[in-house]
Design goal:
Layout lengths: L1 H15 L6 H27 L4 H33 L15 H25 L6 H21 L5 H6 L1 H25 L3 H7 L6 H12 L1 H25 L4 H7 L9 H8 L3 H25 L2
Keywords: Membrane, Transmembrane, Transmembrane helix
InterPro entries: LysO
GO molecular function: L-lysine efflux transmembrane transporter activity
Length: 302
């Protein structure tokens, strides 16, 4: 398991080590990443659809997802509230900016679910058991992480400045620590070894990573639980950001986890103003790096 975890982590750091200056190539990488995400999610759904006893496990999966989402939400909010009290951040809303289309954003947030459901239906009703599905998913994930490493390195972001952004760093660490505390509380509920539960709690909203990595280590059912937990974080974040960002910006920005630097960033920008953008990028960037590292380490202990 340790070797597998290191293989998953290596492409991310390899990609981050390579500087690129070709904008056309970066555009190709962007669309390739988007395609790979949906391909990997469809493979996750395929594995779920071809899992023996799927119907019997759906009830248990629903309970597990509900427990994960609820406990992580409460723990993250508590941790981010404490950070807000210690290091309050003032937000000046810029009402001259148009608001993003929230319906469009919510529909975009549902796209990952559609990809998984499509794979599940195909696996359950249409396709025979396919050999090497897990291996294809693992290699696709490694390519995805390599390309994401390239994107992070060449996004015009200074790692030094990101680490020096006190608000962003504090939000990321608050989410990380409170998620691990939540994981400890969930150990008796989920009935898994402590390191596997902590791996589940370390997705931070990166559903395409957590679903495949956890599914590869613990089976497709737990991969589905990890995916749903993280995609629901993204959808919940879209709902709470406009409500909380004026009074509790740390809670609004931080809860989005890794998505704060990409998917939820337009809502953060429109609801909280330009001052929130570097904070959100710093928090999301750091959690995007911490997530695969923590999941790889915890799963390697099994």
């Amino acid at each position: 398991m340790l070797t597998g975890a290191l293989l998953i982590l290596a492409p991310l750091f390899l990609g981050f080590a390579i500087p690129l200056a070709n904008r056309r190539l970066m555009t190709v990488i962007h669309y390739t990443v988007e395609t790979l995400v949906y391909f990997i999610l469809a493979l996750l759904g395929l594995g779920l659809g071809q899992m023996e006893g799927l119907a019997a496990q759906l009830g248990n999966m629903a309970v597990q997802v509900t427990a994960l989402v609820a406990v992580l939400f409460l723990a993250n909010m508590a941790g981010l509230w404490l950070f807000h009290r210690w290091q309050p951040m003032k937000v000046e809303r810029d009402d001259s900016d148009g608001r993003p289309g929230y319906r469009r954003l919510f529909l975009a947030g549902l796209k990952p679910l559609v990809a998984v459901i499509a794979g599940l239906v195909a696996g359950y009703f249409l396709l025979p058991t396919l050999p090497m599905t897990d291996q294809v998913a693992t290699w696709a994930l490694m390519l995805l992480l390599f390309l994401i490493g390239l994107q992070l390195r060449n996004a015009g972001l200074s790692l030094h400045k990101l680490l020096m952004n006190r608000q962003g760093l504090g939000m990321a660490l608050s989410v990380m620590v409170s998620s691990l505390v939540a994981g400890v509380l969930l150990i008796p509920v989920l009935g898994l070894p402590w390191h596997d539960v902590l791996a589940l709690a370390s997705g931070f909203g990166w559903y395409s990573l957590s679903g495949i990595v956890v599914g590869d280590a613990l089976g497709p059912a737990w991969g589905g639980v990890a995916f749903l937990n993280d995609v629901l974080r993204e959808i919940i974040a879209l709902a709470i950001i406009p409500l909380l960002i004026a009074s509790r910006p740390a809670m609004a920005i931080g809860y989005g986890g890794a998505t704060a630097m990409d998917f939820t960033l337009p809502v953060i920008r429109s609801s909280g103003g330009l001052a929130c953008v570097p904070v959100a990028i710093a928090s999301g960037f750091l959690l995007s790096f911490l997530s695969p590292v923590l999941m790889g380490v915890f799963l390697s202990l099994g």
